[in-house]
Amino acid sequence: xxxxxxxxxxxxxxxxxxxxxxxxxxxxxxxxxxxxxxxxxxxxxxxxxxxxxxxxxxxxxxxxxxxxxxxxxxxxxxxxxxxxxxxxxxxxxxxxxxxxxxxxxxxxxxxxxxxxxxxxxxxxxxxxxxxxxxxxxxxxxxxxxxxxxxxxxxxxxxxxxxxxxxxxxxxxxxx
Length: 175
Hints:
With 175 residues, this protein is an alpha+beta fold.
């Protein structure tokens, strides 16, 4: 397998890994989101709370973002973030209120969903049950699926000024 050193290849790879997670932990019940890689300040990832992507045929989907500056963590940590965000998608699709305070505070329902899928979830005073760590089960999942490390990340130490045409107005759940 080729090394994960290309942005385009990484997005495709994360999509493949999400599909494996969906099969293993959700019985393929989570709708496939659009996987993106962008900076997510203060979080390893997020999902949108509405279907913000739409095809020309009208098919809409959620967005699951992995923080661009966190890609080069050990693969089991990236997988833990994908599972964490998939739990939010599962909760939304099944009417489970797993957060409060505009999607910031993760409650005990979220903790239960994530721990049922092999994650270790610890409490952070300000954000609730959000601190996500891989477990031996997560590592075993990575080994069983021969998942490899991602070898590219965005360097947040370099300063830049983004140029754009407005503000994004879609709320997101953050990890």
